[in-house]
Amino acid sequence: MKSIYLDHAATTPIHPEVINDMVPVLEETFGNPSSIHQYGRKARQILDVARDVIAKSIGANEKEIIFTSGGTEADNLALIGSAYANMDKGKHIVTTMIEHHAILHAAEFLEKQGFTITYLPVNENGRINLDELSSALTDETTTVSVMHVNNETGMVQPIKEIGELLREHQAYFHTDAVQAYGVLPIDVNKLGIDLLTASSHKINGPKGLGFLYVKDGVRIDALQYGGEQERKRRPGTENVAGIKGFQRAVELLNNTREEKVQTHQMFLDLFLKILETEGISFSINGDRDHAVSSIINISFPGTNVESLLTNFDLAGIAASSGSACTAGSVEPSHVLSAMYGDSNERTTNSIRFSFGLANNREDIEEAAMRVASIVQRVKR
């Protein structure tokens, strides 16, 4: 029985071309990028080229890109770093109830440090209300953090409208774009974004790498102490081979984004059609008119997450109940709880399926048939 991977929102398989670009660096370019001799200069050149490629992918300047160990570190640096650096302007931060835990737990930490956090609710469509955001802003607000695409539901927030709302306010606008990067076109200047988080392993690059875009002039404090790497904002010797792989993954997504989106939409339509044909009762969580095609969150009435995921795994189907960072937990999804309420059955009977490089049409057809069979059996 062939195993089928439908959990690309958790992580993605590394692209063969990414591996091919990384191997020569691992074998030949071992110099420290901070060294001034030829070995160091060779490594530094790799970093400089990668930084430029990545910056251009979001309409930024290469000086505005900080390499990190991943999305979590970038989120922490954005939220905590900007909070500390701008305490003279206020100690109020606005975020949402459906953020990744990298933001929510960072916000909880800041609350313990005396900061005030406003957590915006979302409606059943999984999106915030712009009027509620506007009402939440005060003269003390220094950062607004709203994720671009939700990692559990695929819902897209009104990022452009948020950017426009904040243009005349002192607050910086940070967005966790980990699930959006590579799927949606992003221009930080047109969208009014001051800080943006992205991650390599979500776009078929190596794990342990991400970046934080910091608009020129934005004040953030470093959270770690050491050398002067990454413009004194993130010390530590850079992962040169990994960053080369990250660059290649970005180049690939730049060349194939529209094709990928169309393919994912085809996978999604096919998957749902087969479930319908097989007579499966289900509901889609969120508003598909404001969602990416690579992520779908489905409620199966009369079932529970733990039973479904166990049976899916035994049948060779890799899916998720939501965030990979809470995998193994059967607690209700905080995202679905925010959308529908803590007591709603959707919080404990919903599965996230996410499509990507590991899939083809035959996989989707076979996976949908297996899922349909399991849901019918579990409900009986």
Structural account:
By secondary structure, the chain is an alpha/beta fold. The protein has two domains: 4-12 and 256-379, Aspartate Aminotransferase, domain 1; 16-251, Aspartate Aminotransferase, domain 2. The chain contains twelve helices and twelve strands. The longest helix is centred in the last third of the chain and has 38 residues, at 240-277. It has helices spanning 16-28, 38-56, 71-85, 101-112, 130-136, 159-166, 188-191, 240-277, 305-314, 334-340, 346-349, 361-379; strands at 4-5, 65-68, 92-96, 116-120, 141-145, 172-176, 195-199, 210-214, 283-284, 295-299, 317-318, 350-354. α7 links the parallel β6 and β7. It has a seven-stranded mixed β-sheet, sandwiched between helices. The protein has a three-stranded antiparallel β-sheet with strand order 9-10-12. The protein is globular.
SSE layout:
Blueprint: E1 4-5, H1 16-28, H2 38-56, E2 65-68, H3 71-85, E3 92-96, H4 101-112, E4 116-120, H5 130-136, E5 141-145, H6 159-166, E6 172-176, H7 188-191, E7 195-199, E8 210-214, H8 240-277, E9 283-284, E10 295-299, H9 305-314, E11 317-318, H10 334-340, H11 346-349, E12 350-354, H12 361-379
Parallel strand pairs: 1-11, 3-4, 3-5, 5-6, 6-7
Antiparallel strand pairs: 2-8, 7-8, 9-10, 10-12
Helix pairs in contact: 1-8, 2-8, 3-4, 8-12, 9-12
CA-based shape: globular
**What is the CA–CA distance across the termini?**
24 Å
Q: Based on DSSP secondary structure assignment, what is the total number of beta strands?
A: 12
The number of distinct helices, counting runs of at least 4 residues, comes to 12
The top level CATH class name of the largest domain = Alpha Beta
Low-confidence stretches: 323-327
Helix and strand element order: EHHEHEHEHEHEHEEHEEHEHHEH
Q: What is the structural class?
A: alpha/beta
Task: Strand order, main sheet: write it out.
Answer: 2-8-7-6-5-3-4
CATH superfamily of the largest domain: Type I PLP-dependent aspartate aminotransferase-like (Major domain)
CATH architecture annotation of the largest domain: 3-Layer(aba) Sandwich
Proportion of residues in helical segments: 40-55%
**Biggest pleated-sheet summary:** 7 strands, mixed
Q: What is the CATH topology of the largest domain?
A: Aspartate Aminotransferase, domain 2
Q: Let me know the average pLDDT.
A: 96
Amount of beta strand = 5-15%
